[in-house]
Amino acid sequence: MIKVSMLFELQKVLDEELECKNDLKRLTRNVQELQKKVENEEKGYLLAKAKWNKKQTDLEDLSMQLATFEEDRKKYEKELYSPKNSNPKFLKDMENKITEIKRNIDAHEEKILQMMEDAETLKKDAEKKKSTLEKIQQTFQEHSQILESTKQESKILLETLSQKKEKIENQLSEEEMEIFQKAYLLQNKAVALVTMPDACCSACKFQVPHQVADAGRKNPNELYYCENCRRILFFNA
Ligand SMILES: [Zn+2]
Question: Distance from the CA of 162 to the center of ligand 1, in angstroms?
């Protein structure tokens, strides 16, 4: 006689243990992936911000150059219209300088307009990236908290399960433990409940032959294996 019902209890404890550990692994992986995402978004945002800052600096430089040109133009115009100056060569020279500087001013103004547009686009891009980063940081925080509390809960649960396991194992004979462990090595599931009334193995859904099902129900502490998946069958009589 084998205490199949106790083997089934042991299986349930191991199932719970595995589920708890898998949950923890899944949550940990999730948090690690989120952390990577945060790092990537952070890089993207910093790069976009740097591009925008650079464009602003360029814009300031160009505006300063433009201001210098404007000052020079005023200076030359003052010379040109001053009654003190009457030398025709000097006046012609001033006129040429003014024409050239006006051309420079026009070119600079056009460049500045284009740069302002570019800066606006870069600013929007940086703002968008910042908002994406903040959202993903928030999600990361939330999931980290969930992971931390799950870790605490799992620790308690695993301790309880470990005690339960010990208690069951103490009541099982060496032979029973061997039978269990041999079957457990197959697929982390040594014992499968036979569902009723259809008499199927709950692990692989294989239909248990009528004879076996009848015998199993009458003697639930005899050892029966599923013909399909080789697990120990538990008939919950
Ligand atoms: Zn089966």
Answer: 27
